[in-house]
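Field guide to reading this record: the first block holds the primary sequence, the second block holds the structure written as discrete tokens, and the final block holds curator observations. Each block starts with its own label. This record concerns Nucleotidyltransferase, catalogued under organism Candidatus Brocadia sinica JPN1.

BLOCK 1 — SEQUENCE
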Amino acid sequence: MSVNTHLADLASNLVLSDSEKSSISASITTLESRLDAYFGSNITERFQFGSNTRGTILPRKADSNSDIDYMVVFDTSDGQKKPQAYLDRLKKFSETKYSTSEISQSNPTIVLSLNHTKFELVPALNNYGYQIPSPASS
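BLOCK 2 — STRUCTURE
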């Protein structure tokens, strides 16, 4: 095998296939719909960021830690100040809407592991710019 062939094979293994892209896209659409239905006006924004939006996400076969970063911006009119409260809200949402999936907390995110991808749900507030609430120790 030539160096060129080896590099071409390596590169092709580091790109999402069309079926992986389709599965991820469907999961994002479902997540968005479920977030809207569950939280309603208690969230002001929700959006992807990170490697998937940049087009640099690696397939899970190449990187088992590959994930979709997804920010959920909460309405703060209820006066809630404790960072854990926002994580708890996302965890309860995940447990309710994804009851058969693996769910864990990894400060300052909730990790939702599906069969074909993993989401890192990041709670945020928008007080003169996005702020990610986390315990002082984080």
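BLOCK 3 — OBSERVATIONS
Residues 3-131 form a domain with the Beta Polymerase; domain 2 fold (CATH 3.30.460.10).
The CA atoms of residues 19 and 25 lie 10 Å apart.
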